[in-house]
Amino acid sequence: MAILALPMMAQAGPVKVWQTNADQSQLLAQQPDIAFSKKAAGTVITVDPKQRFQTMVGFGAAMTDASAELIRNHMTASQRDGLMDDLFGKKGLDFSFTRLTIGASDFSGNHYSYDDMPAAQTDPNMTRFSIDAARRDVIPAVKQALAINPKLTVMASPWSAPGWMKTTDSLILGSLKPEAYPYFADYLSRYIKAMRAEGIPISLLTLQNEPGFEPDTYPGMRVEPSSRAAFIGGYLGPKFKAEGLRTQILDYDHNWDTPSSPLTVLADARANPFIAGVAWHCYAGDVAAQGAVHDAYPDKDTYFTECSGGEWAPEFDKNFAWTVKNLIIGSTRHWSKGVLMWNLALDENFGPHKGGCSDCRGIVTINSKTGEVKKNIEYYAFGHASKFVKVGAMRIASDDVDGLSNVAFRNRDGSLVLIVLNTHAQPGLFSVSAGGKTFSYTLPAGAAASFVWKP
């Protein structure tokens, strides 16, 4: 049996603690309160609330077509309400950030855009534009999430422009035709206005999911850095400005391994003023790339917008530690204002999907026959941040300690949050010092804990 963490002082105190152990004996479970002590023990992590960095939008996952279909059609009303309250409510994970697909992704039952045309036909006046495909499941699901958490930030990303705008005349493969730039800008503008009319404000937009990748089994579109710069600077940015749209444009929306891609776009004098920040994915490279791009353009925001768990990596201990270290701690230490996983929910067969990933895992798994919910690794990893780091919190300074990965925040109410992961192979004793107050704790190997206190 794994050694459970015990507070250094037994009496009730002002520091609240929630913990997850690598052996799953504790899963985001509240521990006995810790009292402040006069002396430090073990390694010291100093938290400095006076050193402040980015303001947080929050944590969450994408409301894909698959997720919305399961939530809306494969659960009873009471099951659905219970899950949505658990994911977005204050007594649950309190997710405050989500992502929508503009048209289909691989996690859709069919491949579609919001302006499909027969082969070789075009629709430059957008007479066929319609978001009806989103009205069945996605829009009701997002509206329910907004009703539960009005502070929810919604971003959106297309997997492809409509086929008639592309070199392949298809949602599959290809790139955006230069002559279609004004039409694609109009398409994205219409989407934002249509969603706003439904009561869903789109706060953030990327012009293309994973623009360096052309999948051959589901919608995708290659958009090179020079093309993104030309499109943003010459079409999308001016279109939003002319129409008074306040949706912020984020570049890139792809992996850590190619920071040169967003750097090229940000270096473009026409595009740069219209770009609010850069979005990142986890599937290649190192999270430090976020910091490198931020250092080059400190006036631009950073968001982490996609990573998926999956059955290729089923071990709880390894994947929990990786997710907390790289996404919860790593991405926020490297300037992320918001952090997203991919699918909010998938079923027992890792779907519904058409093409693409066949064994991706959602934050939760919904049994498509019974509506029962299984909480996955990522549920607990993200809960260590989303439950305690509130919208508007600021990341604050904390010592980068070997073997005790950590990140700290200050909420608007003045409370402090410290998330610590013990990456050592043995229990770790450490002390936390902040504002002249100290407390100590022992954390089992591979475990994570969230500490919350008022200074």
TrEMBL record:
Signal peptide: none annotated. One of its GO terms (biological process) is glucosylceramide catabolic process. GO terms for molecular function: glucosylceramidase activity. InterPro entries: GH (IPR017853), GH30_C (IPR033452), Glyco_hydro_30 (IPR001139), Glyco_hydro_30_TIM-barrel (IPR033453), Glyco_hydro_b (IPR013780). SUPFAM superfamilies: (Trans)glycosidases (SSF51445), Glycosyl hydrolase domain (SSF51011). One of its GO terms (cellular component) is membrane. Gene3D superfamilies: Glycosidases, Golgi alpha-mannosidase II. Residues 58-389 form the Glycosyl hydrolase family 30 TIM-barrel domain. Keywords: Glycosidase, Hydrolase, Signal. The keyword Hydrolase applies. Residues 392-451 form the Glycosyl hydrolase family 30 beta sandwich domain. It holds the Pfam family Glyco_hydro_30. Belongs to the glycosyl hydrolase 30 family. This is Glycosyl hydrolase. It comes from Asticcacaulis benevestitus DSM 16100 = ATCC BAA-896.
